[in-house]
Amino acid sequence: MSLLKGPAFRRLAYAAGAVAVAGLASAAYQEASEARDRERFSPPGQMVDLGGRLLHVLEVGTGSPTVVIVPAIGGNVLDLLAFQRELARDMRVCVYDRAGFGWSDPPPPGRRTFGDMASELRQGLAGAGIDPPYLLVGHSIGGIIARRFAVEYPGDVAGMVLIDSSHEDQSRRLRAEGWWRRGGARTRWYALRRRLRILGLRRLIVRAGYGQLNAEIARDIPPELAAAARAVNLTARHRRAVVHELLLIARSRGQPSSLGNLPLIVLTAAGRDPTWMEMQAELASLSENGTHIVASQGGHYLQRDNATLVTSVIRDHYALVRSA
To answer: pTM, whole model, 2 decimals?
Structure first.
């Protein structure tokens, strides 16, 4: 009993109290900052009502079919703005913020599926007045969503380009082949790290000019949109959405569905390991009209690292689909 009254206990109590106060202060700062940012930064696109939740959709350019870009985990319209603008020089291009990212509202409670995400995208396109046919461009996990969209709504899809796309069974297979650093266990660990971030503290660090986020924004975002990019990447809903999607891909199992004879291009980043390359080849074989292209340079974000290749492939595929 004396231990509960000694110096060690008092130091522990003081430390716990300090942590609690810091946590409350961080939460209050985060909430106030988010409220201020919502007033400062308007969405560049239109907000589409999905039965009480809003989805942010941005379209640029003219033409048919409409190119619809489906982003990676954590991606938003600002990340893809330069890519979208380049493509929109000769086609109509749409990009959107998936639920929880950018300006879009959080998803409904409960576990989500790739089918849910495909359905929301279709509702968002319809609500924005963007009618089919679509040429879907899916990056990373966006590739799974694009394929699910094509399976569920085949009449809406004229063609598809996958950019270093995720595979439905990647977590299990990377783990089974010994690539544990990129299997489901690593994905879950990364999700836990994101979940434990103290957002108010991180916001202060970013505001002071430090942190990886500032470097990424300086590299990818036009200077006039840098402040808005920091704002949308530092929200609590962004963190939750990243965690939920990481856990979704970690749980995912099974083989992707056939795409019939859909015109399909699978673009794969350079220097990938054999298991990843095997899965990429499988994705190309999902269509009788599929082609697999391996980049000579560029990493997972090929649309940034090798933009000339990616835009050229999409333009050629767009011309092919239009002539069909």
So the answer is: 0.84
